[in-house]
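Quiz preparation item.
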């Protein structure tokens, strides 16, 4: 039995029945990482010793009859912008090289409390700025389906780790699609929960009004199990919602869409979308209709301006959040030889520590917030954001969920868009409105595009704190597609 090919649900069941030990499961995944990751480069840092120690503890407590969580002993990877006590946390940037946080992010603390085994920190675009994981200061990650293509971004490391069977579960963060777009191009499942549904405490901030931590897995049920484990109110996060967590696991198990009204967002399809992406999206809709859902078209006219608004709001918030990285308190310090002033050390540190994309967005954000331009740029973008929230609210008065392709194309080739930032930004055209409105969204595989044989993502969007609807629709579609294919799509991924 290849333990790395089992789902998190299957591993948890085998562990609970003591058919396998947590140490065996962990070692199998560590061995897989050794064999595969030199090609994929999903991980920036491995935690082998700590992982095996945690697995040993799980086995000992299980043998003693102690009560354990349902995912106890299951391996998981964590995106490298979440603080882990005593372990490197770089955000894919040289400016944080060598920094080891003295505390755990709330999500990491919850994983530890539930005895999931953290096997490493995953690669990402620097400070989560990118759509391809080519902007990491520590090297690009490759797509397991085709090593010459991108795994999406900014969370390409987490998606690639799951898609290459190096971990059954992973944690990502989503500011404009950084969980869902990598899930789409790697044939995995990724969820951006409702803003405030999962704590952001200990997440190194990019854009505080947009960032959200969420789960990545190979099936809808596995994603729901992880979502359940990390969600819930956190008094240390002022944006955390103090309300019951939606029953995402129950919804994923029920998987019944009969009588559900599903809206197609007309602004998120058509021109600019790859033919194979549109074809698989249409086929997925037919499956949902056959399962008893009603399919209707919904117009959200303000979505046309979402991309422009997002790329003013995000850089503005990033320029504020990244001001703390000045070489004075932690991380890299350059030019501190006694000859330079404090201001010169700050300047030299930022020059050496930040990459080109981060500098580009900081400059853009600082300009948008500057005196004389604030109202014309940042203020106007926030007004557009309000219109997008209203469009979503009006749409959800007509339908239960909204759907679209997750990304306009399948994975593009490494280097193909590096010199064209605008083309890179357009990859997030379908995912960005969700972050601006703060609602929940899921991407799951809808098949392979006939042109290139690469995965296509199907996006589901639900009203705030109705994340269970994502899993209800996602699980129903996944089951229908599994019946069609005879297996989960990820099982077609090439063996590395």
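Solution:
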């Amino acid at each position: 039995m290849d333990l790395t090919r089992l789902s998190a649900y299957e591993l948890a069941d085998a562990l609970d029945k003591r058919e396998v030990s947590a140490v065996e499961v962990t070692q199998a995944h560590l061995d897989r990482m050794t064999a595969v990751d030199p090609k994929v480069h999903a991980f920036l840092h491995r935690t082998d010793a700590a992982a095996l120690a945690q697995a040993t503890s799980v086995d000992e407590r299980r043998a003693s009859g102690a009560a354990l969580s349902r995912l106890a002993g299951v391996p998981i990877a964590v995106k490298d912008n979440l603080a882990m006590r005593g372990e490197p946390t770089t955000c894919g940037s040289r400016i944080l090289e060598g920094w080891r946080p003295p505390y755990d992010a709330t999500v990491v603390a919850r994983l530890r409390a539930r005895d999931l085994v953290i096997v490493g920190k995953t690669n990402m675009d620097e400070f989560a700025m990118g759509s391809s994981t080519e902007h990491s200061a520590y090297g690009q990650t490759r797509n397991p389906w085709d090593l010459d293509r991108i795994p999406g971004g900014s969370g390409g490391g987490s998606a690639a780790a799951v898609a290459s069977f190096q971990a059954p579960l992973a944690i990502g963060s989503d500011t404009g699609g950084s969980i869902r777009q990598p899930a789409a191009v790697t044939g995995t499942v990724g969820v951006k929960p409702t803003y405030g549904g999962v704590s952001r405490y200990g997440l190194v901030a990019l854009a505080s009004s947009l960032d959200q931590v969420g789960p990545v897995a190979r099936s809808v049920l596995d994603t729901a199990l992880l979502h359940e484990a990390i969600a819930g109110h956190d008094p240390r996060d002022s944006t955390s919602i103090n309300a019951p967590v939606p029953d995402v696991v129950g919804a994923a198990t029920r998987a019944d869409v009969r009588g559900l009204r599903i809206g197609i967002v007309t602004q998120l399809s058509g021109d600019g979308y790859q033919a194979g992406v549109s074809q698989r999206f249409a086929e997925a809709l037919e499956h949902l209709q056959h399962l008893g859902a009603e399919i209707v078209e919904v117009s959200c006219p303000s979505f046309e301006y979402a991309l422009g608004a997002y790329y003013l709001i995000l850089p503005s918030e990033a320029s504020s959040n990244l001001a703390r990285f000045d070489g004075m308190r932690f991380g890299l310090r350059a030019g501190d030889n006694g000859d330079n002033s404090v201001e010169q050390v700050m300047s030299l540190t930022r020059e050496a520590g930040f990459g080109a994309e981060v500098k580009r967005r900081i400059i853009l954000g600082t300009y948008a917030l500057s005196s004389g331009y604030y109202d014309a740029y940042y203020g106007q973008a926030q007004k557009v954001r309000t219109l997008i929230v209203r469009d979503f609210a009006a749409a959800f008065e007509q339908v239960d969920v909204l759907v679209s392709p997750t990304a306009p194309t399948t994975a593009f080739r490494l280097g193909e868009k590096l010199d064209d930032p605008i083309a890179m930004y357009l990859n997030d055209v379908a995912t960005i409105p969700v972050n601006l409105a703060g609602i929940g969204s899921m991407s799951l595989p809808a098949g392979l595009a006939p042109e290139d044989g690469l995965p296509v993502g199907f996006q589901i969007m639900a009203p705030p704190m109705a994340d269970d609807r994502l899993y209800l629709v996602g699980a129903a579609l996944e089951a229908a597609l599994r019946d069609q294919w005879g297996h989960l799509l990820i099982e077609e991924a090439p063996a590395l």
